[in-house]
């Protein structure tokens, strides 16, 4: 099997695809927290939470600071900017396509012969 390096955008979307990882990011939106504080309310083991945290770190969505024996995490929103930019580009594309379809359908209705 051939492995390739994932692009940053791929890593961001992969990280955001899981509800647990989104919950972790939501928790870190307002303030940093220790890994154990993040894991406490989640219905899984600390080891499972650590795996989710590793995915978020690989995507660059988290920063880790080690102070003594404690690991503190904080959110890094920078990768979300690129993801938002990508979505915005495609939103504009599909809006134009939908507008063109609406115009076409309207024209078809107007050209219909009246009984």
UniProtKB/TrEMBL annotation:
<dbReference type="InterPro" id="IPR011991">
    <property type="entry name" value="ArsR-like_HTH"/>
</dbReference>
<dbReference type="InterPro" id="IPR036390">
    <property type="entry name" value="WH_DNA-bd_sf"/>
</dbReference>
<protein>
    <submittedName>
        <fullName>ArsR/SmtB family transcription factor</fullName>
    </submittedName>
</protein>
<dbReference type="Pfam" id="PF12840">
    <property type="entry name" value="HTH_20"/>
</dbReference>
<feature type="domain" description="HTH arsR-type">
    <location>
        <begin position="1"/>
        <end position="95"/>
    </location>
</feature>
<dbReference type="InterPro" id="IPR036388">
    <property type="entry name" value="WH-like_DNA-bd_sf"/>
</dbReference>
<dbReference type="InterPro" id="IPR001845">
    <property type="entry name" value="HTH_ArsR_DNA-bd_dom"/>
</dbReference>
């Amino acid at each position: 099997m051939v492995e390739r390096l994932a692009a940053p955008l791929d890593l961001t979307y992969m990280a955001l695809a899981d509800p647990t990882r989104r919950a972790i990011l939501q928790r870190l939106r307002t303030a940093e927290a220790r890994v154990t504080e993040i894991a406490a309310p989640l219905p899984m083991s600390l080891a499972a939470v650590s795996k989710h945290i590793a995915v978020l770190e690989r995507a660059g969505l988290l920063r880790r600071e080690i102070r003594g024996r404690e690991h503190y995490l904080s959110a890094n929103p920078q990768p979300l900017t690129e993801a938002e930019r990508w979505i915005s580009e495609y939103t504009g594309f599909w809006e134009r396509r939908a507008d063109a379809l609406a115009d076409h359908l309207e024209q078809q209705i107007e050209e219909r012969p009246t009984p």
